[in-house]
Records
---
Amino acid sequence: GAGVSQSPSNKVTEKGKDVELRCDPISGHTALYWYRQSLGQGLEFLIYFQGNSAPDKSGLPSDRFSAERTGGSVSTLTIQRTQQEDSAVYLCASSLAGTGIFSNQPQHFGDGTRLSIL
Amino acid sequence: QKEVEQNSGPLSVPEGAIASLNCTYSDRGSQSFFWYRQYSGKSPELIMSIYSNGDKEDGRFTAQLNKASQYVSLLIRDSQPSDSATYLCAVKGYGQNFVFGPGTRLSVLP
């Protein structure tokens, strides 16, 4: 079946502009995650959704970053007034949301959006 | 603060050897453990998951879990140059969030 889909695959924009990144999870996956990965670095957690709510948004680096999810499916990550340090690959992942002893579902990643701020 | 630690490497092994990748975690309540492989410029892909103490084998890969010592490892037998990548350890508790380690870069030398 279809995997996690992210768009655009590449985005180049000028400093100060707003950008929207989109993630379409695997059908039926209720948990959705956003990460950021700078060149040569590990995954930096940003936010995760369970359905349309975000129980953990502790990783958002500043109030310029926001994310929403509607209909328990597609999510958008918005970065306002972009800065050069926002340049990175933004990865989205989704998983089935088991709880308690069933919380053993792995994440599946999209191909990411490579964001470059000029 | 839940932490997952890995040696950053690079870990270099000759072709055909066994590569051993290690991961330790701080949260004793962790329930599920995953190994992801990430090739340069690509997104992480799941290669193994393990939930119970002991070994789990899948082809050339063996995951080992020891909850008492809070470590999980990944062995790659008969290493191939195509195994050269960064390996990420991920840990999950009863909740939905994952904690990823920084990754270990593996280089398999022909």
---
Amino acid sequence: DAGVIQSPRHEVTEMGQEVTLRCKPISGHNSLFWYRQTMMRGLELLIYFNNNVPIDDSGMPEDRFSAKMPNASFSTLKIQPSEPRDSAVYFCASSLRNRWLSGRRSQETQYFGPGTRLLVL
Amino acid sequence: AQSVAQPEDQVNVAEGNPLTVKCTYSVSGNPYLFWYVQYPNRGLQFLLKYITGDNLVKGSYGFEAEFNKSQTSFHLKKPSALVSDSALYFCAVRVTAAGNKLTFGGGTRVLVKP
């Protein structure tokens, strides 16, 4: 399995530009998570999806951020317009949410992609 | 609300010595606890998890963790540290009532010296 795939791996852009980060979850996984990691704030959950539906977007910083999951194998995180304070590493993670597995509630493990390092100048 | 605390920003240990990375949690309900490791310029890698059953959980790369309900702790341990264990370690907790969100601790940087 290729694992979670993120693109681009690095992005340098100027303030005000639109940035789109992409994620392909592990095949068969039905939950997808977007995180942001900075030195100051650590690892923050931005939004997560179950079965392509956004469940909790309370971590999205503001209206400049938006995320979509048009199908089970693809998600985007968009920042428009970007600002220098958006500079961070953005991680995508996926998991298999299977409520009942062999008679027990499954406790899915999240698997992370390599991240996109974003620098907004 | 659920929360996780990793009280040490950094842990230094000599190669071959035991390694312990501390984690305490606060939840209302039964916790599911996880440890992840992050190497430089890489994503987080899953090490181990506690769901139910034996309090001592064994994971990847010789790591183990002990769930202590009375002390609300889930410390990560390795009997003999390697230089290659130098990385950033994250503890995380999940409670089913909170959906499948993970709450992460602030991370502990481990430095293993030869």
---
Amino acid sequence: EVQLVESGGGLVQPGGSLRLSCAASGFTFSSHWMSWVRQPPGKGLEWVANIKPDGSAKYDVDSVKGRFTISRDNAKNSLYLQMNSLRAEDTAVYYCARHGVGGYWTDYWGQGTLVTVSS
Amino acid sequence: EIVMTQSPATLSVSPGERATLSCRASQSVSNNLAWYQQKPGQAPRLLIYGASTRATGIPARFSGSGSGTEFTLTISSLQSEDFAVYYCQQYFNWPPLTFGGGTKVEIK
């Protein structure tokens, strides 16, 4: 059974940093593109970043460029999101998600971890 | 950036009736379109990819159609568990991967 379990969310002050983790199991982690997708409270979904299976390519949305960094450790079956210079508008549930084979839809999602940026 | 627009924002349907949800792309995405269902407090669930291919375990009452810029998700006979928010997402031209704003399907 595919499982994605996020951790690391919490309350942080504006300008602060946070590192999210996602533990993957039940599939060959090193074979899949992985993404972070976020959802502000009561709002829709926004793709944040994704990373190639071997970690050699990474892409992100303009609003987080230079502040967020996606990474992975295939030996640990783990995905990460380092978030720096956090802003109030980064407040959201952050989901770890697996891309499907042969395309960039997301076929499995974690339960999400809430990040709240507030003073 | 490709902008995805969903309509209507809210759809009121009676159980057993048919629901038709629309998604429009600001430019052609070919058939690189996925649909997701999200219930309150839960993560999204993949329903459809490739515009019309049902994901594993998705009931046949869910069907997707369209290509280019116009797409439709049809739920043939709404069950109680289908009342949720539905999102479309394009993966043709990225980054960024982009989602529509969602359609809430509520009980009439």
---
Amino acid sequence: EVQLVESGGGLVQPGGSLRLSCTASGFAFSSYNMNWVRQAPGKGLEWLAYISSSSRIIHFADSVKGRFTVSRDNVKTSLYLQMNSLRDEDTALYYCARNLIGWGYGSVTYPVFDSWGQGTLVTVSS
Amino acid sequence: QSVLTQPPSASGTPGQRVTISCSGSTSNIGTNTVHWYQQLPGTAPQLLIYRNNQRPSGVPDRFSGSKSDTSASLAISGLQSADEADYYCATWDDSLNGPVFGGGTKLTVL
């Protein structure tokens, strides 16, 4: 069974940092491109970041570019989101999401995320 | 404010057919495929339709998608109470050079 489990969320002050993790199991993690998507309380979905299976290709939404970094460890089957210079508006539930296999960023079949974690809540507040 | 416009709410009675629209432009829906996600209350989104009208395995054929020009639609036939959820459309935007989601539509089964 495919499982994605996020962790690392919590309460952080504005300007602070947080590192989210997403641990994958039940599939060949190293073969899949991965994404981070967030959802502010009561709001819609916002794509944040993409990392290819080999980590060679990385993209970010403008809203987090320069503040967030994404990485992965295919041996540990884990995906990470390092969030710096956090703002109030970064408060959200953060999901990791698996890309449909064989398709990459900007392809005709993007954004198609066929598995999602349960999310980890990040609250930015003083 | 999303570049993809969805009605904030929709409703129907059990057994009815409902449609949810997703309106965009030539830089997104007009030139790219559309995907749909279902988010049941308190849960993570799930892929419902991809590439305009393709259903992942396990998705009932009561759910169907279509696209015409700069708009897309999700249709749900034989509406069930279990279909009560938020529905999001998504696509690629050539002008923004990135993926975009619609604002979501909350479906209520009366």
